[in-house]
Amino acid sequence: MIGRAAFLLVAACRLWGQVGDLAVVVNADSGVVSVSPEEARNLFLGRQRYLRSELMALPVEQVVPEATREQFYARLVRMPVAQVRAYWARLYFTGKAQPPLQTGSAEETLGIVAANRGAIGFVEKEKLDRRVRVVLVLSGKGPA
Amino acid sequence: MRVSGAYGLAVWATTVLGAQEPARNLQISAFGTLGLARTDSDLVGFRRDGVQYDGIFTKLSGKLDSRLGVQASAQLRPGLLATVQVLSRERYDGSFKPGIPWATLTWSPAPGLQVRAGVFNFNETPAGDNMEVGHTYLWARPPVEVMGGGLTTVRGIWVARTFEAWPGATLEASAQYGTLLVKQPIDHVGAWDVTGSPTGGARLVLYTGGWRIGAGAAALKFTTNVPEPIPTIQTLLRGFGGALGDPRPARAADALDGRGRTLSTAFVHAVWAQGPWEVQGYVGRVISNAFSSPATWQGYASLGHRLGSLVPYAMAARLEVGAPRVPDLGPLRTVTGPMAPQAAYLAYAVDTIARARAANQWTYTAGLRWDFAPGADLKFQVDSLRSPDRGTGNLYVPTQGDPPPWNGRLTVFSVTLDFQVGGGR
């Protein structure tokens, strides 16, 4: 058991190192210039449905590659993706909220955020472009 | 049929609430559990909640935990979500006839404000409103000691307001009001339809870091009477009271009334879910003036630790029911002569009804959850139920009359496969 835990810890550390800084981004016209880690947590866990600028939030979740999503939730809410999925099933199947819109790439995330004023997503920092505004950075060196 | 109904609801809501175009993102998703379970006794049956018809015994059975739900949901416009759910599970009559336990419109009209109206599950416990969706919680089933009541499906309205309590902490204050949509089985008799009974409550939940801490209260007033043979027993008690010239049998008859009785509860709970740990606890107190629902203390503590896709877990749950309030029957217990057998039978019936609710029990649970694929898990669970006074109030007793020669111990072995299909966007 201890050996398995150690293996998982090493694997998690390797994975951590594979994903660089993650930028939480919003639409440039959203009226939002920064987002605290707690706000981001509430937005991506469905507890907060509006951005601070009172626009209805549209969280966008990049699911490919899986490591990006794993690292996003590990750094922001310190939960494994399986747990996040179960958490969202609870909200979704009780009619409380719909889970984040899922995308297959950083380009797709950036396109949706650029096209929707209330959208908020995350991408690896090196994939950023000028269409979106960075409001929070989750460092690859450790949890936010 | 169901899906078109959901679409109809979506179109109706769109029209009424002024959206400019019909729902564009109707989603159909499903959830369910395939479960197999057995116990080590044929003297009492184990059931997971108070709306299942009877229990499971030593024969392997799929009916305890198995269920299938299909959900249609549509984001009608920003901030307006329609949800309709069809669920098949064992009901009060033993059938798996599908029902609609969930049909809501959820509206977020302003930052921090959410309103939900329609048919929904109102349960104050941490895994209460999602108790039909096995994939959302750690165990094979929520603890029966806490969630066994079954008085949870309501038609009503729920309003929640969220605030920033302090930097890094969010407080959600919510209140709900509605009427029950529930039929409960009464063993060997039939079902008690409590539909229409009003219920309401309020709750505060604090979210900070990995914590979710809640407290609240709720109340319920029964507006329907219990089914036969209780009304006949009441009539006979009143008749004997009149014949004997003593008011006590008639007072005992009044005590058996269901209509007009109230049930209130207060509770606190806490959940820690961050990193590999998932810990939660709940304590609730139920006070009632209904003969059929004595006062109880109930609670549980649960601990799980994730190791990759595996989560071993353990739980202890407790239900303590107050001593049965056996009505004073006065001279009815000492009647002699030709009416003695009927009087003795009536006294026996009242004693049996009082005893039927006794359920001072512990359940110790150990299990393993394996998240083997996205949206799917397999759980292996063993429950050891201990009832020192051999109370069977939470169990099904297959024989009528005197208590079975059960030793107060029951072990339940379960395997469940939970899944969800869809539910992402």
Tell me what the structure shows.
- The complex is a heterodimer of chains A (about 140) and B (about 425).
- Chain A has one domain (about 1-140): Periplasmic binding protein-like II (D-Maltodextrin-Binding Protein, domain 2), CATH 3.40.190.
- Chain A is about 40% helix and about 20% strand.
- Chain A has helices at about 1-20, 35-45, 65-75, 80-90, 105-115; strands at about 20-25, 60, 100-105, 120-125, 130-140.
- Mean pLDDT of chain A is about 85; it is low at about 5-15.
- With about 425 residues, chain B is mainly beta.
- Chain B has a domain at about 45-65 and about 110-225 and about 260-320 and about 360-420: Porin.
- In chain B, the strands form two sheets. A 16-stranded antiparallel barrel of chain B has the order 1-2-3-4-5-6-7-10-11-12-13-14-15-16-17-18.
- In chain B, helix 3 (about 230-245) crosses helix 5 (about 340-355).
- Chain B is globular.
- Chains A and B meet through helix 1 and helix 4 of A and strand 2, strand 3, strand 4, strand 5 and strand 7 of B.
Explain the layout of strands and helices:
The complex is a heterodimer of chains A (144) and B (425).
Chain A: H1 2-18, E1 22-27, H2 37-44, E2 58-62, H3 66-76, H4 81-92, E3 101-103, H5 106-115, E4 119-124, E5 132-138
Chain B: H1 2-16, E1 27-39, E2 67-77, E3 80-88, E4 99-110, E5 113-121, H2 144-147, E6 153-166, E7 169-180, E8 183-186, E9 190-193, E10 198-208, E11 211-221, H3 230-244, H4 248-255, E12 262-274, E13 277-288, E14 296-305, E15 310-321, H5 340-356, E16 361-373, E17 376-386, E18 409-421
Antiparallel strand pairs in B: 1-2, 1-18, 2-3, 3-4, 4-5, 5-6, 6-7, 7-10, 8-9, 10-11, 11-12, 12-13, 13-14, 14-15, 15-16, 16-17, 17-18
Helix pairs in contact in B: 3-4, 3-5
